[in-house]
Amino acid sequence: MSESTPYMAIENVSKIFGSYEALSDVSLDIHAGQVLCLLGDNGAGKSTLIKVLSGFHEPTSGTVKINGKPVQFKSPRDATAAGISTVHQFGGTFPLMSLGRSFFTGVEPTKGWGPFKYFDKKFANKVVVEQMQEMGITRVTDGDRFVGSLSGGERQVSAIARAVYFGAKVLILDEPTAALGVKEAAHVLRIIMQAKHRGIAVVLVTHNVSHALTVGDHFAVLIRGEKADDFAKGQRTREEITDLMAGGEAMAELEAELASLTGSGDSIHD
Ligand SMILES: Nc1ncnc2c1ncn2[C@@H]1O[C@H](COP(=O)(O)OP(=O)(O)OP(=O)(O)O)[C@@H](O)[C@H]1O
Ligand SMILES: [Mg+2]
């Protein structure tokens, strides 16, 4: 694929919590216009890696680079300024905030001057509804609606719409399809492809092999904090990827073991 300098890269990054090494010497390239899928079992270090990319954690050692130059993110604000937009695993939105407000958190459009400045709600609501409609969420027609009243898929789409609207260069999504039904997940995957075609670098964490294979250009697998594999689309079979995602254990063996349990008379079902 592209031999050009990646927009973002990490080199030999480790992250230690107390005496526990959650990330160990991980290097990764993140290219514009590509979807990088970050795979791995529970506790493998995926969210920790994302928090390093998004300025939430400083790495214990190693380097983060933007356009080939080392950077130090002291806070998520620094990462945002470098064009990195992150939708974290467990939301982070306020359910009782209006859609318009939440879309413009931190960059509130104002009207008036000096002490007479006020939040331009009309403008914010108009933009959020337009952006949602553009991304195929036609049921949302009122920016005054609470974020908490959106479905999981609509919430993911609104977060992606926000990143695209504010010109993100890197869009990081931690398990965006985990709690979604088939149709909503497909919609979110479609929006991810749209972002990629606009030239955004997407980092997607998922436990779902089909979702990863559908949208991924490149794949990196973490096992216990180490990068166990790193490959481009088409270089591994689906079965190989599934085994890697299960932490290197052969799924076929596990399935055989489960089959012997369920078929063994002393049923585990009631
Ligand atoms: N702030 C922290 N302090 C101490 N340990 C942490 C901290 N954050 C993460 N860890 C540990 O680091 C390891 C990796 O966690 P992480 O959340 O990155 O896993 P993950 O791959 O995202 O897992 P999942 O798929 O379940 O979301 C876990 O063992 C976790 O308990
Ligand atoms: Mg996680």
TrEMBL record:
Keywords: ATP-binding, Nucleotide-binding. SUPFAM superfamilies: P-loop containing nucleoside triphosphate hydrolases. It holds the Pfam family ABC_tran. Residues 8-249 form the ABC transporter domain. GO terms for molecular function: ATP binding; ATP hydrolysis activity. InterPro entries: AAA+_ATPase, ABC_carbohydrate_import_ATPase, ABC_transporter-like_ATP-bd, P-loop_NTPase. PANTHER family: CARBOHYDRATE TRANSPORT ATP-BINDING PROTEIN MG119-RELATED, SUGAR ABC TRANSPORTER ATP-BINDING PROTEIN. This is ATP-binding cassette domain-containing protein.
